[in-house]
Amino acid sequence: MPDKKNIMIMAGTKDAARIIEKLNKQKKFYILATTTTQYGSDIAKSAGAHEVISRKLEEKEMIELVDKKKIEILIDATHPFAINATKNAINASKLTGINYIRFERPQMELPESNQIHIVFSFEEAALKANELTEGRILHLAGVLTLKPVIEKIDSSRLFARVLPSLDSIKKCLEHGLKQKNIIAMQGTFSKDFNRALMEEYSVSLIITKESGETGGTIPKIDAALELGIQIVLVTRPVVVELEGEETFTDVDQLCNFMLK
Q1: Per residue in 147-203, pLDDT tens?
Q2: Full DSSP string of 177-194
Q3: Can you tell me whether residue 74 is helix, strand or coil?
Q4: Contacts of 59 by beta carbon, 8 Å cutoff, 6+ apart
Q5: CB 93 within 8 A of CB 73
Q6: Are the CB atoms for 111 and 104 separated by under 8 Å?
Q7: Architecture category of domain 5-106+238-258 in CATH
Q8: Full-model pTM
Q9: Which of 235, 211, 219, 208 lies closest to 14 in space, CA to CA?
Q10: For residue 150, how many other CB atoms are within 10 A of its CB?
Q11: How far apart (Å, rounded) are the C-alpha atoms in residues 170 and 155?
């Protein structure tokens, strides 16, 4: 049997876990996964990654890792908002001469509603939220986007749903979020669950981001629409460096391409 091809998958998402699982079944690849959180590391290991590095990697470190592990292909399956990671991956691939492949979550089709307010940054989201309501606000965009929001919104009326990890809760407290306003839960949730949460906390507005169907954005929006709650939606950033790169929006198509 020929030697396995060494590939690196920038993971931490459910999309990445599906890619790892499908490629691992082929027995043709040695899969090194990189993540920035323990949660991401756990799902990458469960999916079948042979090795996992769980820490943030800068461009120089990625280059060193590619050389050390003799990586031939880098698959970037990071979150659509992890733009710095994607830029570093593209640059590292070019500098080391390996192939770069991007998995990009498909864009969502949003419902037409005057309750939905599109913005382009979390700073803008906070300003729009203050403009729209003086009531309670539910942040549904993860702990990494919390800082620019809490800097502009009174922490007494801001609630955040984050992963139930020590790191996430610590970051919330460091940013000034009140302990009673931290909702620690893991997973994507149904419309009914989101609706119950919004009702329980009596929120009048949610802040979320366009993470695609995998990120559970639609059930959040549908729940808020039913309740008449305002929605401030941060649209995903455009990464100009991706122009001309091999990009897939379907996991099966990406995996089939890898097997050619």
Answers
A1: 999 999 999 999 999 999 899 999 999 999 999 999 999 888 999 999 999 999 999
A2: --GGGEEE--S---HHHH
A3: strand
A4: 88, 91, 92
A5: no
A6: no
A7: 3-Layer(aba) Sandwich (3.40)
A8: 0.88
A9: 211
A10: 19
A11: 15
As given in the structure block, the two tokens for residue 170 are 């610590």
SS3 of residue 223 by DSSP: helix
* Within this chain, domains 5-106+238-258 and 116-234 share the same CATH topology: yes
Long-range contacts formed by 87-91: CB under 8 A, 24+ apart = 87/239, 87/241, 88/57, 88/58, 88/59, 88/62, 89/10, 89/62, 90/241, 90/242, 90/245, 91/59, 91/241
Domain parsing of the chain, residue ranges: 5-106+238-258, 116-234
Q: Does residue 231 sit in helix, strand or coil?
A: strand
The encoded tokens of residue 130 equal 């203050």
Question: How far apart are alpha carbons 11 and 103 in whole angstroms?
Answer: 10
Tokens of 74: 């880098």
- CATH of segment(s) 116-234: 3.40.50.620
Strand ranges of the sheet holding 29-35, from the earlier edge strand across to the other edge: 51-54, 29-35, 5-10, 73-76, 99-103, 246-248
